[in-house]
Write a structure and sequence with these properties.
The protein has a twelve-stranded mixed sheet. The chain starts with a strand and ends with a strand. The protein is an alpha+beta fold and 305 residues long. The protein is elongated, with a radius of gyration of 21 Å. The protein is built from ten helices and twelve strands. 35% of the residues lie in helices and 28% in strands. The longest helix is centred in the middle third of the chain and has 18 residues.
Amino acid sequence: MVDLSADDSLASSHLFDSEPVAPHVGPFPKTPWLDVWRRHFPSGDLAIVSSDDTLIPLILENNTVTFAGHADVTDYHAPLGPHVVEVLGAWIRDLPDGTRLVFDSLPLEAATVVRKAVERASIEPTERVHEVAAVMTLGDSRHDWLAALSKKQRHEVRRKRRRFEEHFGEPTLSTVTGRDSVATFAAMHRKAFGDKGTFMTDTMEAFFADLHKYSGATMSALRAASGDIAAMAFGFFEADGYYLYNSALEPTFAEGAPGVVLLDLLIEQVIDSGLHRFDFLKGDEVYKFRMGATARDLFVIEATT
C-alpha cells in the first residue's frame, strides 16, 4: 500500500532513518538537512511519498516535480528505502497528464532506481550527466595521500605549506562553533571575487547558520601563528567520510596560499579521524582533481506524464 501525504514538516518521519538507494550521499537525503532547507526555501508544495519502509520527499511547483532540496544547494539526491521503484512509480502513475518530472543530482545507483520507477509508470524518461562530484579515497596517513599525487602537485602542496609558514608562522586547524563563526565565514566569503563573492546573501548566511546549529555541520578554521583566521571550511563528518560543503579565504593571507594549506590540514584531520573518503561534492574545479580527486557522475532524469 502506498501512503501519500503532504506536510510542511520533514522532521517527523522515522523513515528518514532508512538507507538511501545510493551510497556515500552525505547528509543531504535526510533530516535535519532537508528540514533546515525547507525552513529557508519554502516555495512549492511538499509531498512526502512513502510506504512502510520507503520515503521520497518531493516538491511540486509550477507543474513540475523535483526532489526536496534544490540542486543549487543540495549536492546529492537519493530516495530512502528498499521499495522506491514501486512506491515512486505508483505515485507518478497517478499524476495529471503533462506534469514534468526533473530528478537531478543522482549518483548512478540512485539514477538506476529512479529511472526504473519512472518506467514503471509507463513513461519513457531521458537520462544524462548534468554535474560531477569530486571524491578522494584516502590512505592511512598524510604521507599516503601525498604519495598518490603527481610529483608536481606533491611539490606544490609542500611548497605552499612552507610559504605559509614563512609568512605567517605554523598553521593550525581548529573547530569553531556558534553563530559568530558563521558570520565570520560569511564575511570572508563576501570578499571573494566573481560569483563566489555574491553567493553569500543574507538568506544564505541564515541557511548556513541553521545548518551549523541543527544539522551537525562542522566549521574548521585555518589559523596563522598569530591566531588570526586565514581560511575556513564548512563541512560534514559522516560515518563514511568527510563532505566539504563550502570554504572561504581571507584575502590578506593570499600570499600564503591559504586554500591549499587549509585542504592539506583538513585532509590530514580527516585521515586522523579514521575516515578514508573526502568528498569535495559538486563541481569540476581543477584544484579538486589536482588534490587527488576523481569524478563521480551525477545524473538528471527527466520525463513528462
